[in-house]
Design a protein that fits this description.
Rossmann fold; 6-stranded antiparallel beta sheet; homotetramer; 2 domains; alpha+beta
Chain lengths: 476, 476, 476, 476
């Protein structure tokens, strides 16, 4: 997962972009990059770490210009100092010289499911590639730029209309040249891209929170299969695929997006409360308090409390100063020390606790917290997840390490999954929200089995695009 | 404000101390230091920044030993890179060679109100001082060590019994020599110091959360005027002043301490909920939702909601990746951009909002949030503070910049203060908790005017110790 | 100017390469890079700064493998910290994926005079380029790799035979794949590339000093138009151009190469002494001592002293701790403070000084030293340069800033140049070595006007290759 | 060994000091520090590393003021990054608050031989000390400041007159207060301190090269037992001990001082040439060339060549980019790779070489170079040292590690020492300059056995001061 942001038509484009990316930091903490254009030159800076540290005054001062695009990248743990330079190489936006357009910068959020196949085809015709051992997103980006270079249409919009239909998967692209800013959303709208406006400036961002966090006006989402081109302050809209209903990633509602963002016309925070209320209806339990695994479970927990009438309590405190922590707990094995969450003993002692989180992938955090709740004297702990079992992984931009280590296996039914999670975490009971419950909370109606209203492949295994690189093109 | 931690009798003393200090990080983000002792040598490391970054594997590996003490220091904004070396000089623990004890390390939380007077007296007798332009806490610490050196008793406990009665103010000291670990609490117990135990190891910490965050057992607080000496795994208790009732700083309950700590037998989080309930009783208002300024106002807001029946909502989202942020919003004046808090528009639009925080010093955050709530469509915003006006400042270890910039002036009555805060923040109404309401929530009864149960000088102006350096020794 | 080094067939290839590059550090101080291959993976590290600082133990430990190539790059002054990341991007070796060879790494020393023309042609056929605003050497390298990708021969040697004849200019390439190490020298042998051997390992280096500095055996130079391929420990030699007499850059003898290197069978140091002796014969003068501008002029000064009988003296001391110095002299204008050279007053006071340097480009150093010699009491200062006026610049890899700021203009005769230099430096007399004198010292005979024995374009304006990018292909 | 510098009465005192320290860098490469005073405040900066890197523009800009003092410290090898903070603590100048003078800064070059005894005495009277495990120089400095604090005279000059006679050993102090700058030289003038002048500004420096490197005028050395006080631009001279003949450290002539400095009226470089000439007279040998171990042996080698008529050659090249080098040669044992010196094979092949250095302490460098000369084909190598065997070590500020690892033992006669060095280095013959030869070169006459003209304790074992800390006060 990543986040992208762009602005054009404002005197401090890089500064605005740094704030926009700061608001998208939850979508990627590994590295960040900004490319700006000031009428003649492009300026670039990429670095490992958090936006708030990278783009200090002197760095931003070098990135002059009235247009800029940027990206934040997913965090992998344990990055050591000597890897910073390497990270910077892999960070986006990527810049290439392409005739007749000159420099073309591209920032990408998502994953192409046929990028390696396309790369092989291009390589067989003698193209050379920059990246070795780089991650998928860099290959995607270079393949897209190579295809733009190889296309023959005279305009960039024309070339994109030729190139984009060759790409499979989920993607949001922002492209910047000396003339234009272009925003692209994949044909099914799986990855979000939002249009905003502030006075004469246009913005593109992965989420509305970045636009509203800049006190700008959220205009509308880019539509599935739509390409927006901004030139001389004017917007034109183009389509590059047959019109299809949107299948926005449902995990954006559940986990990815920030609670203060708006998706498909709904407040993410309110959707999460609704997920908690559905969960309370489906999986009620007799208990004394509802606690969230903070902060991800806060909203569903409040919704659960509202629906069930069981009081909400701040029984688990999230440490403020987490981020990249290099300290380590002492080695003795019988301690189970968390550097991230603490229990409020007085709040849970002797209580039956409903413990709510939005989802469960590897189960490590839930396992630790259940153990610590019990040690703090909780009488019972009932784990409630406000989404279905995450059984099928994702090929549209999620860290594969998580896919491989997920608890819920594709072939298991929910009861078996719950049993495993009970055993793993030590919870007294475990329940997941159903697929239809999730749809009711998000869309107000159950899943439409003819044409699902969202991409829900991670829960259902129904992937809405071919997965050419992996399995030769099955469509679900 | 600072935090101190110590452990002795465990094979990984510095590692344990780094985790302990990490749990005390909310008490100081400027710098951290650890001194360890391994039977022959002392090892030391101090650096600017967060504990989780400073004490990485290789730094901790150098700090070998079975005993260690450490400190975290208060954060001042805008520290630049070139100041890191300077900070490191000023960080604690301080080490001195004192005969016949050899190396003596001291970590201090609090403030002596006669340190400058004592320093002058010592200097007049020919003593030379290390620190120039250093902060008060460093002067305190050096003065204390100088007095220990000048005393003539043969034992360190004996010298402390002579020296401590000379000190005025609020302090918690941890002293480490090659033989002993000593913990000291000031005669009124204004600054907290807690004793913990893990198997054969003893711990001292500013708060219980650091002890319990290490899965160790909280034994008891050090008493007012008590000195605990640990030697060869055994504890002895000594007193150095006439017994007086405890007057623990009431702001520890309200703001300083972590919600998962325990103070005077009570859960800090539950006390804060109780403050919110008292506030709801004293300053009720007809409204649609209760929102906290997160995370400081969370618990009082929930208490307010419980008592008033007005639903609690997460209307304001705190950015996770704050810490030291170097980016800056674009310069245009008409935007009021926050890098720290975002509003969930859908949650507040058209609503009458009770906005709860634990206290109000300068009012800047409240001002911004009220403005942004209104812009997001909140119909009314009623600001409720779960403590009385912070009118008198503090001379026991609080950043003086805050004292000077406080909104509430000593000579104003509450109604006038509320008027000013209304004008400043743009809130539709403002109310503070009363002093007696605060005491009811914290102690279960109103303020005892003969002998207040806490130090509440910042609210009442009644300072419980002489303020010799400032005013020649008035006692309230 | 740059330096390249490679080794294969040794267990610590990156370590060996780091030492080899350290010995080539005089050829480039801006940045360094190493790419290693360990049977399956390639590892890379590039960074701004000196080799001795970049390739510390932990960096080298990551670069595992039995084959490695590296490069050092030219120093530009005043690089600030925030540019380090940018430099790392531009540093070599460059890595590309090229089918069917997989990863191909290339390090380059020299300059192609038709790289921009070739880049334009490739771009017109739809190729996209990585580098924007990068320096010439990066464009050269990418163009070469693109051409290799576009060629159709099945082997890399075969492709290079097709591609290299398309390149104009002066170059030494080292190419590494998972199978082969290839060393290439341009058709005229303008840039040097040396072959060395240590037990079973082969080495390639810009100079013999890097080979002998590793106590390895210098085997022979790569010949003009020769390509050496090393595979499975065996060497094969290939040619890619019609055989032509070598025209090695004569400035390698005069200035570029390290005095302990061997070029065209001669010791560089001894050649420089010979240049000094020729100079003494051509431009004798009555004086008391011969001083060098250290360390570049040391050897010619000693030769001048030997031939003239005027005693050699260390009258000017070079500061050891120069490198990147960020301090600045106080601002007052009437001081002419050098941070690099000091005068030994007692050695020069009242003396007539012959001041010898190997060449004079901008004249700044000579100007300062003459002024300081006079201030220290030197009676006369006679500047003697052991090469002809550097009038025509260079298009084969020399920093263009120097070309533009050179004192000697192409249209001036030597007498006029000497007059200008006298006026600029304040020397009492100035003399340059003649072109034929230079050839006598280097080759034992005057310049062969039919076919010069060296590339001497910077002195004569006779460029031995087309300069397509600049002037559409004039050949001299 | 260290270097000190001070200036007062100039608008850019810290800038001037940074350049002055840069010229003294050969006296200490571990760390540097500057303290400035601008009329009201003192500013300070200390850091590990080279002056040219530490005192960049922004650091110097913070050190405002018209007076400044600074120090450079001895280099120990292999300092890792995490030790930088520790170094900074130990770096000088040291600052203390001392009534009635306020802040007092002190920079020290030398070593007190009774500092630990004095420290113990002070500690026994209840004084506490800052430094634990610090080096001797920091203890010296703190002891001196403590004594100043404990003295009772009303003026600083008065207190120094009381305090300095208590100190034994070799020292040059510079003291700065808000009012005065004071320079002190020990009673025997063992450590040098020079007075300079530039317009209205006064300078103090360990060597004249720092004064002349700033184009200032060298006025005179501070005399043995003299104290210079500068106040309001005026100088007064005071004495604090009975007048004794100077016994300046003779190793300053031989090795410590920079060749462009002047000592006791003589050019250091010319003295070193004279040492080489004496050596040629005493230890002539039939040979083909004279080579120096560069750069330390350069001047004596030239002198040897002048006297013997054997030609001087640059047969060994010193690497420019040494400083702190973190790369390491490959591990195989049969290579003897130097990162510091290279041999010019053509210059030495088949030759009988006289190899000259100024002194020999551990013999490691000589051993490596002899081996490499032989491998490069030198027929014979005759090692000649332009000073006597360094048999007795030094207690006046030399790195003790060197003392312990010296080759020449106190009880050996010269013939035995030469045999050992022959065996160690593999040289064909070894000869040292005699003590009287050394005195002839330095003073124009043999050693005066009644009262030696220099401190020559390292060669003769005759220490001119008590060594109280070590041996209870023997005086030689």
């Amino acid at each position: 997962m990543c986040g992208v942001f762009a602005v054009c038509g404002t005197p401090e484009a890089a500064k605005t972009t740094s704030v926009g990316l700061h608001h998208l930091q939850h979508r990627g903490q590994e590295a960040g990059g900004i490319v700006s254009f000031e009428g003649e030159h492009f300026y670039e800076h990429r670095e490992g770490g958090l936006i708030g540290r990278i783009f200090n005054k002197s760095v931003v001062a070098r990135l002059s210009g009235t247009a800029a695009i940027g990206q934040v990248r997913y965090s992998t743990s344990g990055v050591k100092h000597e890897d910073v330079v390497k990270q910077a190489r892999d960070a986006q936006p990527m810049l290439k010289k392409i005739l007749p357009f000159g420099t073309v910068a591209l920032a990408h959020n998502g994953n192409l499911t046929n990028a390696k196949t396309l790369q092989l085809e291009l390589a067989l015709t003698g193209k050379v590639f920059e990246t070795q051992k780089s991650d998928d997103e860099m290959i995607d980006t270079e393949v897209a730029l190579m295809l733009i270079g190889a296309a023959i249409e005279p305009t960039l919009v024309g070339r994109l209309k030729t190139v984009l239909p060759l790409l499979e998967g989920a993607y949001a692209f922002i492209v910047m040249t000396s003339k234009q800013m272009i925003g692209v959303c994949d044909p099914l709208g799986i990855r979000p891209l939002m249009l905003g406006r502030y006075k004469g400036a246009w913005m593109l961002a992965s989420e509305t929170c970045a636009i509203e966090g800049l006190d700008a006006e959220f205009v509308r989402p880019i539509q599935p299969g739509e390409m927006i081109a901004i030139e001389d302050g004017k917007i034109t809209s183009h389509t590059f695929s047959v019109k299809q209903p949107s299948r926005l990633c449902i995990f954006e509602h559940i986990y990815f997006s920030k609670p203060d963002s708006t998706l498909e016309g709904k407040s993410v925070m309110q959707t999460r409360e609704a997920l908690g209320r559905e969960l309370a209806r489906e999986a009620s339990i007799d208990a004394d308090i509802v606690c969230a695994i903070p902060d991800s479970g806060n909203y569903a927990a409040l919704g659960f409390s509202q629906e069930s009438g069981i009081p909400f309590a701040f029984g688990i405190i999230r440490h403020h100063y987490v981020g990249r922590v290099f300290i380590q707990p002492p080695d003795e094995r019988d301690r189970d020390i968390s550097l991230k969450h603490n229990i409020v003993r007085a709040a849970v002692q002797g209580k039956r606790v409903v413990l709510v989180d939005d989802s469960l992938v590897r189960g490590i955090t839930a396992q630790r917290i259940v153990a610590r709740l019990k040690r703090a004297g909780a009488r019972e702990v009932h784990l409630r997840l406000s989404s279905p079992p995450w059984q099928h992984g994702c090929y549209y931009g999620i860290d594969e390490a998580n896919v491989h280590r997920r608890v819920a296996k594709p072939y298991e039914n929910v009861a078996v999954v719950c049993e495993h999670v009970c055993a793993l975490t030590g919870a007294d009971s475990v329940a997941y929200l159903s697929v239809d419950g999730m749809y009711r909370a998000v869309h107000g109606e159950p899943r439409n089995s003819t044409c699902a209203q969202s991409c829900d492949a991670c829960f259902t295994g129904r992937f809405p695009t071919p997965l050419t690189d992996r399995c030769g093109g099955r469509i679900h």
